[in-house]
Amino acid sequence: MRHVPVRPLIVDALAYGRGKRQATRDVIGAGPRSIAGVLESTGIEPRIAPVEAALGRAFNLSAYNLLMVSGMTSDIPTVRKMMRRWRKESEGPALIGGPVASDAEILRRVDADLAVTGEGELALLELLSLGLNEGIIPGEDELSSVKGIIYGTDAETQVNPLRPRMGRIEYDELTPSTRTISSYPLFRAARVYVEVLRGCSNYHRAQGALPEETCDACNLCRSGGLETRYYCPHGVPPGCGYCSVPSLFGPPKSRSVEKILEEVERLLLEGVRRVVLSAPGFLDYGRDLLVEPEPLTDPRSPQPNYDALERLLSRLSNLAPIAEGEASLMIENLKGDLVTERAAKVLGQYLSGTPVNIGFETGSDIHSRQIGRSSTPRENLYAVRRLRKAGLKPYVYFVNGLPGQNEGTVKATVSAIDDSVAAGASRIILYRFQPLPMSAFQDLPRAPPAARDPLSNRVHDAAVRANSRLKEKLIGSRIRVVVAEPYSRDRRFHVAYPMLHGPVVLVEQAQGLEGEVLDVDVSGVASDRVVKGTLVR
Predict the structure, then answer these.
(1) pTM summary value
(2) How far is the C-alpha of 496 from the C-alpha of 516, rounded, in Å?
(3) Nearest CA to 173 among 223, 209, 121, 130?
(4) How far are the Cα atoms of 193, 307, 347, 458 from residue 352, in angstroms, in the given order?
(5) pLDDT, tens digit (0-9, with 9 covering 90-100), for 336-360
(6) DSSP at 139
(7) Does residue 99 carry a pLDDT above 80?
């Protein structure tokens, strides 16, 4: 029997929802490149394609004999479209990965052959050794021994136990692909995410926000030892009730400075202009080293590993394109309780002018504890003030329709939005609650749109008012942007993205300047998310 070389296509469906990205068109996540790196380590050359490109009429799916789709729970409609198209044009197997793969019913819902759950790199290596490297799904006997996968048998869907989480050394040996970044049409203007750590230190549990009380307030998850916090006597998943990161990836494990530096250098050589150091909580970086060999299951203690943070940020900031202003370095999420005065100063020294996200979710102290948050709204306000004082631009986010939302929590949240702006927040980000598999709230209903829920609508209106005021303050300012693509709603304009993140900027007379870094004078506000600007020649 002649073996056919595998020709894999990795489709990035992350955040595409029903098929079109709106607010995050300039985001390229780290997951698909990590999987591409696994394939490259075995001598296989994959291609990555955004799902909107792979669904295009001109895209030739028949050139590939293995499909691998990465998506989130909210992306199921788009993943389903991709699978239907694949079945029409190829006979090869189809795999699903990413957060969406933690749903036990995902194979049936999207018509995939196999799902890889949680940390997928080692499971993929094992599958390749069993025949996937030739474009063939291994037999049931072989699949039964592979942890961290879901597959179909003649009788049922088989959900294998999760694979043990990788240790820090094992994780650091992985090398994400950088060659494949050019497969993304907007890679020169996009925020390209580079994973610096995986996992979350918040092993608190949701208390009081579940429909049936499952917590007896033993408080082990908040006051026990690091090993003790790992397990809940009632089986409540760890972390914030709406989040599945601790269940899927465990406590934090940090990559070495050398591996991160190498990846960023290669991305810059490929033409990337905007790098985001990706982590569920950036100030967890290196904290795991302070407690080894115990797991980092306390989100509050020890304090940040200041030496590790400085080593990482100083080495990256000295890379020529970043030091010369032709590329930018950003971070994203911070836990408010870890934003000490010293931490804010370290971040301000290397990331001045950079936006950073602080999650409030709710403005109510009681509600915050109920949903499993590690920091209180008051601590988050302190964090906003410290970060602003250090020269950063705090973004704060809230979640509409969380379990336990009521008149009191909404009133406190509206006040927290106003207080955040007064403390120095540059933007309010609002999400709608959606239950995720393997989270404490996985069996609860999705929140209705804000327009159909009077309580959520009050929070939504408060966020829109705040953002509109903040955008108006930008008029007359000058910001540095990278030109991306023509604006789909009005071809006179091009979309440009601030080098250090911020509102989308619409500019005229930018034909032929795609990928160029230029200065723009902000001339007006188009919406609560978009401003207009004039190119500075």
Answers:
(1) 0.92
(2) 10
(3) 121
(4) 19, 19, 7, 33
(5) 999 999 999 999 999 999 999 999 9
(6) P
(7) yes
Distance CA 434, CA 227 (A): 30
Angle of CA points 437, 443, 445, to nearest 5°: 110
Placement of tokens 């990205």 in the chain: 21
SS3 of residue 484 by DSSP: strand
pLDDT of residue 74: 87
Question: What does DSSP assign to residue 425?
Answer: -
Q: How far is CA 291 from CA 10, 253, 258, 326, in A?
A: 37, 11, 21, 38
The alpha carbon torsion through 277, 117, 126, 53 (nearest 10 deg) reads -60
pLDDT value at 1 more than 50: no
Q: Residue 426 in contact with residue 470, Cβ under 8 Å?
A: yes
pLDDT at 471: 86
Edge-to-edge strand list for the sheet holding 191-195 = 27-28, 191-195, 274-278, 328-331
Sign of the C-alpha dihedral, residues 321, 252, 437, 361? negative
Backbone angles phi, psi at 86, to 5 degrees: -60, -45
Sequence-distant (6+) residues with CB within 8 A of 495 are 25, 483, 484, 485, 486, 487, 504, 505, 506
Alpha-carbon gap, residue 85 to 94, rounded angstroms: 11
∠ CA 349-354-355, nearest 5°, is 130
Size (the chain), residues: 537
Residue 503, CA atoms < 13 Å, CB-side half-sphere: 29
The DSSP letter of residue 212 is: S
Two tokens, residue 286:
């290196």
Residue 209 is predicted with a pLDDT of 64
Contact 214, 234 (CB under 8 A): yes
Q: Is 315 helix (H, G, I), strand (E, B) or coil?
A: helix
Q: Are 398 and 413 in contact (CB under 8 A)?
A: yes
Q: What is the pLDDT of residues 13-56, one digit of tens each?
A: 988 877 676 667 889 999 999 999 999 999 999 999 999 999 99
User: Across residues 491-516, what is the average pLDDT?
Assistant: 90
Instruction: Give me the residues paired with residue 508 across strands.
Output: 493
Task: Report the interhelical angle of 306-317 vs 341-351 (nearest 10°).
Answer: 10
Q: Is the peptide bond before 302 cis (omega within 30 degrees of 0)?
A: yes
What tokens appear for 349 in the block?
Answer: 């020294």
Which amino acid is present at 483? V
Q: How far is CA 530 from the centre of its chain?
A: 22
Domains of the chain: 8-166 (3.40.50.10090), 188-472 (3.80.30.20), 478-536 (2.40.50.140)
Please provide residue 198's backbone torsions phi and psi, each rounded to the nearest 5 degrees.
Answer: -130, 140
Q: Which residue(s) pair with 389 in the sheet?
A: none
Peptide bond before residue 32 is cis, with ω within 30 degrees of 0: no
Helix (H, G, I), strand (E, B) or coil at 157: strand
Angle CA 400–403–409, to nearest 5? 65
Predicted confidence (pLDDT) per residue in 347-397, tens digit: 999 999 999 999 999 999 999 999 999 999 999 999 999 999 999 999 999
> Is the CB of residue 294 less than 8 Å from the CB of residue 227?
yes
- C-alpha–C-alpha distance, residues 120 and 138, integer Å: 17
